[in-house]
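Folds abound. Consider this:
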Amino acid sequence: MDDKVKERRARKLALRLVEIRRIPREEWLTTEIANEYTQRAKKLSNGSSEDTGDRRRLRQELQERCGITEIEAINILQGMHVQTYISKYEMASTQTLLKSDLDKIEGDIELVRKFIYDIETGQDMGMPLVDDYDYLLDEESQE
């Protein structure tokens, strides 16, 4: 792999981690929290998954508590994609990477940590930070 490609991929991973970590939250999303909100939503639900009334307030509470997006909170209340979201925020909170991410940078975690440090200390003046997680995952569309 070309060093420039590897550096660009490492920087994107670092940006993703930093952006997720910058979102204000009371606590990180965990399995226990996700299960709690899924169960609370089931108790509210009369078969409807519409984002109205008490269900909307529950979704907003989850968003504020864990700093997650609206669609993530809606899906968690419905019990969908829960493990994906937990992995995403766990990765950011611990600065660990998924195997698929490590493969993209040939396992060079130190390069990602260098970019995280540069971003957090203001030394990285490259491309602007972005908040679209899926955009960063789609490497093929960027090359």
The first helix runs from residue 3 to 22. The CA atoms of residues 13 and 101 lie 8 Å apart. The chain has one domain: 3-142. Residues 3-142 form one domain.
